[in-house]
Amino acid sequence: MKSELRKARSRERVARIQALTAEDPVLGARLNRILTHARNVRVTEYHLTNACNIRCKGCWFFEYGHDTATREVKDLATLESFLIDETKRRRVNAALVIGGEPTLFPDRLRLFVKHLRYVTVSSNGLRRLPWDGFEDVNVMLTLFGGGKLDDELRAIKPSGRQFTGLFETVLENYHQDPRANFVYALTEDGIEYIEDTVRRIAENGNRLSFNFYSKYGTDDPTAQAHQDALLAEALRVKALYPDVVLSHPYYIEAMITGRTHWGADFGYDVCPSISIDHPDHAERLENGNPVLPFFNTWAADLKTVKFCCTSGHCDGCRDSQAVNSWLMVSMDRFLDSREMLETWIGIAEGYWNQFIWTPFNPYAAAHQTMKAERAGPVEEVEDGGHVPARVPHAPAVPVSAQFQGVGH
């Protein structure tokens, strides 16, 4: 019965899309490009380590004891065997690697690069991910509040000692690095810093997406006392820097308010970024709202399936990737008009634009050219094939002129 219902809905969706794009082949081509790419990405999230080199205020990983709940696997052979099973048995080909701080263990990250086609690392940016061997790894750089707030909220050693200049260090580490995308968590306390922070990221040759800073562990987890002002400023800065701020205006509003045009509020019953193999989700998987196929979040012990992509505490959650995924799996809600379908396409294009390994990233083609240049001239081999000549002393930082002025 459910199968027949899904087939009927699919037929209705196809018919509606055909009607909306019949007189706009460009829009139809944009949609087809998104769907073709998306259906080939099968993602799962991995806690690479429980260790981190800073202690951000409000970090759900430490606030809720994820660092002590399991013991991380350090043996590379065990990790590699696990990843092989993920790719062969579960057919996963995309990894979102978080921590802790993944860049502390590049040897483990190399195994993800070896076995998965698409790899994204979430990092605080204090330690730069090496270039060699990680050329196609997307790096999502955390940023809280902007301005002086970033140091107040993030520049804290594990000992509890505060330091300064974290944002400046991250900018230096990822100057004009095409792999990097800042995930800028907005807060009403930092409205005055948004424009200047975005400007500095643009001048550094990077781009960004907006997130929402949820104050985990406080009595006011969503911190929305000045929500309207925060939303207005975020949209204003998006308009000022449309090629730097990748987040679509519709997503920005949904992320800050949690609301949509069809009346749904973001929360557990609609969030698609839950671990499909977690036993607590049996009812959620039956409620009819879509979820991400194949998606699990694995703890650092490689045995424990975590509740979801983030803290496991849904009240007030505005995780950027979860909200983006929610909007993208809700395409049926955007088929009332050509204008709404174009809005959905813009949301999806903005999301995929974050990743260096997608065709939606405008620097992806130049990135591949730069990789080929750094690999050196091509040499003929006896069987008629080609191999790149090795460059043993390639520079550590990509400086190709093709990336000068990214985001301007």
Count of discrete alpha- or pi-helical segments spanning 4 or more residues: 14
Output the helix-strand order: HHEHHHEHEEHHEHEHHEHHHEE
Q: What is the total tally of β strands?
A: 9
Using the alpha-carbon principal axes, give the shape. globular
Topology, please?
Elements: H1 2-21, H2 25-38, E1 43-47, H3 60-63, H4 66-69, H5 76-88, E2 94-98, H6 106-115, E3 118-123, E4 138-144, H7 148-154, H8 166-173, E5 180-186, H9 194-203, E6 207-212, H10 227-240, H11 249-257, E7 297-298, H12 320-328, H13 338-352, H14 364-375, E8 378-380, E9 386-388
Helix pairs in contact: 2-13, 5-6, 10-11, 12-13
Detailed description of the structure:
InterPro entries: Aldolase_TIM (IPR013785), rSAM (IPR007197), rSAM_sf (IPR058240). This is Radical SAM protein. It comes from Tistrella mobilis (strain KA081020-065). The chain is an alpha/beta fold and 408 residues long. The chain has one domain: TIM Barrel, CATH 3.20.20. It contains 14 helices and 9 strands. Strands 6-5-4-3-2-1-7 form a 7-stranded parallel β-sheet. Helix 10 packs antiparallel against helix 11. It is globular, with a radius of gyration of 21 Å. The relative contact order is 0.13. The C terminus is likely disordered.
Question: What's the quick description here?
Answer:
This protein is 37% helix and 11% strand.
